[in-house]
Design the sequence.
């Protein structure tokens, strides 16, 4: 990655981190994803053996209150520490990089104005667009299918009081025998086929897309990410258009 592109992405990450501090709504997951994104960007700009990665980790650790645990749902003191330590280092790195490239870069990556978003379900836009725009395509895909999982989980819990997740959640929610979420008229053969087919698609998405993305550092290129985000959007629309 060029220094110029790296500078643009660093500036965006600073904006994202400052947004967490200003909104007071960052969760543990938000902070951990942000830290991972910064580490990955430093590696991509400066190389795997650069000392900047270790310096960033040190800055983060120096900023956190050691005695507290992370709390989700609110911006806890330890999250403030992580963010402020990381932001201070990242802003210093940006200043050095600005001197290196000559000026703050105003251009943005092509993905920022990618036309796909006008076709994507709003819940997927909210969960994935900022990550995709910043070039974190794998994280954008992971966030999209996590959002699908969250939506289905919320409906199933409201209707059955069951707390399920992943592929098991999908086979329960969309079972052609007793669907919690009916996607078509179950009194017809076509409706039953639609129900069973999409149950397999939802289940397969959790096993083959969400799980590998969540557990392994799999690189996903922008073109493939677009295809997968379209799939997450389709599944979200299917849920929204369910038969009550």
Sequence:
């Amino acid at each position: 990655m060029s220094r110029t592109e790296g500078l643009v992405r660093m500036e965006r990450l600073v904006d994202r981190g400052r947004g967490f501090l200003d909104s007071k709504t960052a969760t543990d997951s938000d902070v951990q994803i942000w830290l991972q994104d910064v580490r990955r960007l430093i590696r991509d700009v400066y190389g795997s053996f650069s000392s900047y990665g270790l310096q960033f980790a040190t800055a983060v650790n120096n900023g956190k209150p050691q005695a507290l645990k992370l709390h989700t749902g609110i911006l806890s003191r330890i999250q403030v520490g992580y963010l402020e330590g990381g932001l201070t280092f990242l802003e210093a790195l940006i200043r050095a990089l600005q001197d290196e490239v000559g000026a703050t870069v105003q251009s943005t990556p092509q993905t920022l104005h990618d036309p796909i978003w006008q076709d994507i379900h709003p819940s997927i836009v909210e969960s994935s667009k900022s990550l995709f725009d910043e070039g974190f395509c794998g994280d954008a895909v992971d966030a999209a299918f996590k959002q699908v999982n969250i939506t289905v989980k919320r409906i199933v819990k409201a209707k059955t009081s069951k707390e399920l997740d992943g592929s098991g959640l999908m086979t329960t929610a969309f079972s052609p025998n007793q669907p919690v979420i009916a996607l078509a008229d179950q009194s017809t053969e076509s409706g039953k086929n639609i129900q069973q087919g999409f149950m397999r698609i939802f289940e397969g998405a959790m096993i083959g897309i969400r799980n590998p993305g969540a557990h392994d550092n799999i690189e996903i290129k922008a073109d493939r990410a677009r295809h997968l985000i379209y799939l997450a959007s389709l599944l979200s629309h299917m849920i929204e258009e369910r038969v009550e």
Summary: DSSP finds nine helices and no strands in the chain.
